[in-house]
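Cross-posted from the bioinformatics board.
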Amino acid sequence: MFTEPIDILVLFAVSLPFVGWVERRLHRNFLTGLYAVIGLALSAFRLHPLLSQALRSPVLLPIHAGAYHACLRVDFLGAFMAAVFLTMSLLVAVYSIKYMERDTGLPLYYALLLFMAAGMLGVVFAGDFFTLFIFWELMCISSYVLVAFRKRRWEPIEAGFKYLIMSSAGSATLLYGLSLLYGRTGTLNFVQLSKVMADAADVWGYLTLVLVLVGFGVKASVFMLHQWLPDAHPAAPSSISALLSGVVIKAGVYGIVRALFMVFPPPHFSWPAALAILAALTMTYGNLAAMLQTDIKRLLAYSSIAQMGYILFAVSTATSHGLTAGLLHVLNHALMKGLLFLCAGAFIYMAGTRKLSELRGIGHRMPITAITFTVGALAISGIPPLNGFVSEFMIVYAGIQAGSLPLTGVMLMNILLGFAYYLRLIKVIVWSTPSERLDGVREAPALMLAPMILIALLCVVIGVYPAPFVEAAERAAQAVIHPYEA
Amino acid sequence: MLPHAPWLVWAVPIAGCLLTPILARVHGKLRDWFAFLFAVVSSTFALSMLPDAFYGGSADIQMPWIPHLSLQLGVLVDPLSVFMACIVSFIGALILLYSIGYMAGEEGLTRYYFFMLLFIGGMIGLVMADNLLQLYIFWEVVGLCSYALIGFWYKRPEAVRAGMKAFIVTRVGDVCLLAGILMLYLHTGTFAFSSIREAAEGLDASTLSTVALLMFGGAVGKSAQFPLFVWLPDAMEGPATVSALIHAATMVKAGVYLVARMYTVFPQAHGYLLAVAAVGSATALLASTMALTALDIKRVLAYSTISQIGYMMFALGLGSPGGWFASQFHLMSHALFKALLFLCAGAVIHAVGTRDMRRMGGLRRYMPITYSTFLVGVLSLSAIPPFNGFWSKDLILEESYGLGGSVGLLLFLAGTLTAAVTVAYSIRMLALVFLGEPPSHLRGGRVHEAPRVMTIPMVVLAVLCVLSGFLQAPLAYLMSHIFHSASLPTSLEADILPLSTSLLALAAGGLPAYLVYVRRIVPPERFTHGAFLGAVYRLLLNGYYVDWLYHRIFVNGVAFISERSRRLQTGILNFSMLLVLISLLSLLGLLLMS
């Protein structure tokens, strides 16, 4: 229907209730999870040829019977993002088999997970804003329900509701911006827009830009548009938190990058300075708010806001270096934050609490989880030779290169702030004497450990040998900066 | 040179650290001895590079790393890097031998050996790196090891806090260093030491001094210089072996190494040398006064380390090849005698069970070997001829005197004053721990000499403290390859004025301390009371309140702002939507304005 990776995900998602029925019959409650993992793996397998095709030139795929000349256009930026999204979704699905074991409604859970992945893939594969918006909503709606998945408790319901309202407001703002764009140019196709919008930098042009930016910004949790995030990310099951913080907010970043570079190109639209200020505010707020949190997941959620600030700062340099650094950080943050949430999930799964004061010293009861958690925390604090260092130093370099020294100084200060609370987190989890409350706690099951160990290893590998990943990020950046060159 | 020595010298300890968990599975003893063995192999490789370097051979060996950024993984074999690698690996091996006795029976020894070996590998990697980026990576790796090892006894909350503090404070410097490295790269297009010098010549003065000062900021953090010295005294919460290796002999010298390495790049940077000299001499003097009042034996040694590194910095700040050489010479002397002093202190703490010097005394009787080696260390530290500290420190004073002018004179005076204070606190420490009558709880055969596995490294270091002072001429020949034209001082010139001043300083500091702490003509407690003396005492005891001030401003300040910023998160949906609207309007305004 669209393209194989998306089709496979949709197909597996709609057939999941049947598997759920079989599962109930056979009393084997890992079947749905296994089925979802197979679906995601197949999709990832079929993504591979698309990836290598997109590396050469953008792949154009018209959608049959689509309205408004809807089409898919897979360039390397889209393929790069899709690879990140699918990898994380697959690892999270593996983790979920054990983590979600005690929950009910698993067919629904996995179907939503697959739909969310399909939505994210569609967003990054879309060749025009119409297609993008359709998939955007598919992703959003699935994620609202997933946040509120544990519906017996009040917190997820409230968080999901807030998320729903704010995200819908964002979508509406985006839609309004798109309608202005369509009314003005008569097209929503990215390639065509990039040709006609260059000389439309007037008040209406800027209004359109702001509406689109705010629309995507709600998802990317930019400062002042972030208020849903500290509620929604902690309230979701940890596997979903890992996805929300790791990749779903990156869809917002993707939207911002796609719109700002292709539709509102930098020399004609002077957005870099404004975006840089916004980025500096976002990272500073995120780090300051994370500093004193007492709930492990809430702390990680605020830290995600800060990390979005780093990525947006990289984007705001509007240079090839900056965008490369930003996209590499998208990959790295997906891994690091995904890892941290999965570890936090393991702690919560075994100890039954999210409070840092009650998790004190749990690392001694769960040494492998503790080591992977420490790797993630050190990586995100930018300690070499781990992956976070590579992209953070590239971002700082891009900032210096772009000549925005004061804001680069702010970024460096923020790295220190983030470092401080991650050290505090390590101190609580690893360097404390475990309390009696944790006496019965043991190491997490192997099925949960496997994805965590894999991601931790990736963090080390990217840190020690970043060349191929830097190159991929650069190709992705080139794809959007010079969209016509193959 | 042994084949591939420049790579294997740091790869072997790192490989060793990865093997420790496996060896620990087999047997604890095997792990301990293998850790020592890895360090010995590493120091064999390091020493094998010495002859080549001595006869002026230098090499820059590279392999591709991130071709996309034209980054190479490289090792640089030159007199400076080989010299540092030898010190690190040799002292590392001795300390790992000592650890077998000192750490016996501790919990979590796999973690200990893992990080010790990683540290040795990282530190050698740091000095062997042929470019700034690689140096920075190892720079952070050794910082990580330091953090993990300070907090080794994690059951003591103060140890964990000290580790965090060390990591965060040094990282303030690291962030400056990173900014400096990247700015330099932006303007020169290279990280490599071999090409950075020519490339930096075209830089305009203001950029060059910004870069130089930013990078010096990194050195200040790592080498615990004023105003970032606050972490080192607290770092003494770690085991004595860790203090000896990381916080005395090697890691804290990384800053000195960096400044020495960049010496040829930044000579014209405006104000840079003066900043280095000023920070160094101020630190030397301030830290030595703090050592006068500290009650914890390891804290005395920590302040002393800060002070001695200050000497090295200020020698580098003189900006002459002679000063540069003097700093490296003193680096070697200090690495030997301070490692020795820490190991002796470890033996004492091991025997007595406390670090508080008020609960020690008269240990000379029970621990003769520790006493005599400690005495050698103290004499070296106090720069009494013919121990090594005398030769290197007087060379620094002589060079600063030779600089002339008011700056040179001021530096010379600061250095001489520091020398006087150094003798005073050394005698105080010696007297409180080893001399006098033992307190009652130490009597009756409860205190024993350390086992041989601990005393052997101490004796080796003590012997070297006596001998290494006479190695100035060969060392000067080795280092002269770095300065193609200038000749380095192969011996003290024994200029009558600086020499007699510094000997006078020894007497001026030593005599009062001897009378008070050894002869007890005036009880030492007399100096802690009274309106003026009491105030001075409290000022010094609290480290000039720098720590307190930082805590007030940074820790409490950030906590305060953080607390305030949380008020923005009301959780009220109406408010959130209002913020969306505000951000929409303000963004539009911002964009239309620009």
